[in-house]
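User: I'm writing a tutorial on reading structure tokens. Could you give me a worked example: one chain, its sequence, then its tokens, then a sentence or two explaining what the tokens reveal?
Assistant: Sure. Here is the example chain.
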Amino acid sequence: MSMFKRVAVFSIIIMLLISLTIFFGGFILTGRYGDRILPGVTSAGFPLGGLTPEQAEKLLRETLTPPEGLEVVLVAEDRQWIMPLKSVGAYYDYPEAVANAYAVGRSGSLMRRVSELLGNKTESTDIKLPLKFHSELLKRELERINGEYSIKPLNARLLLDKNEVNVVPGKEGSEMDLAEITGHIYSFSAGMELKLAITPKIVAPEIREQDLSGLTDILGECTTLFEAGSVGRVNNIVRASGKLNGKLVKPGEIFSFNDVVGTIDEKNGYLMAKVIADGQLVDDYGGGVCQVSTTLYGAVLLSGFEIIERYPHSMPVKYVPPGFDATVAGDQKDFRFRNNLNRPVYIISSTEPDQGHVKVVIIGKKQDNLMFDSNQQWTADKACYQSFWYMCPIPWRLSLP
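And here are its predicted structure tokens:
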């Protein structure tokens, strides 16, 4: 037998002897401690070696102060927020810590078990006592803190100055990285410093300056008038108009008035005022909102967009001629249109409560093949209908050259 083969055989024999030693050593050591935790194992600094799992859990419960009186401190530069653990249903998971302590020397590969058994003779193995939380309570509390910490981004927007369109750049915002913060909090265990530094997460505005590039023309505008003395109606018109203002409608996108304005009820700040229902005037939340949808409808008609959904009132309204209104009613009736141009369009909606004006302007880029004419020749920019002035030069006809 060559020298190489003799060395190889010798090496194999040595490895087998070591493996057998480890196997029988591990078997003997594990059997020696039976159903008790190995010596040298601690949790939260308390020695658990030689105890049964039941004894170990009892020791931890009786020795440690419950975490309800502790607090998590979230720090951001010169500001900080205190989150009492009691408010998020925090507790120590004793069974998990004890199970992990008992598993030392009993789980994993044979080599690992023996290594843990032998290692505990010279140094201790400390098992984390994890903090657990009521997930929904923790989520709510972090969202509350984030509401105070976060800075909302500002969308880029268009402003009209004597029919000249100007772009106002937007600004980035910031907020907490809730997923990251939550992960750090769930890694807390007994004895740790419950303090976290908040790293801001940048939030980009939904509308950027480049999104408004090239939008330089007024495609259509409409102004209708209302009685400034009706408190509820004025409130509702101002609120709905504010929801429309600053909306960007992308090419091919269908704009829904109801989706943008949202639920019309007391919770969302709408007041009681007269509405038309089944041909009669009755009091309901949101009276006046239909004047905003009607004013938008007038601007949309003049812009030449495709009308997807539109309903007239069940009786004439006094702020536009018959047939040029657009009522909305919860999930039943909506006003929708499609941007059938190849560029986005931008909606500017404004009110002058003291003057009783609501105005909608649609900004875009005029198309070379699109122009407007009228079926009926109107000689004035204003017309009076049932004692109320409106400034929508409609009816209108779309003409293609």
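What the tokens reveal: The chain has a mean pLDDT of 83. The radius of gyration is 36 Å.
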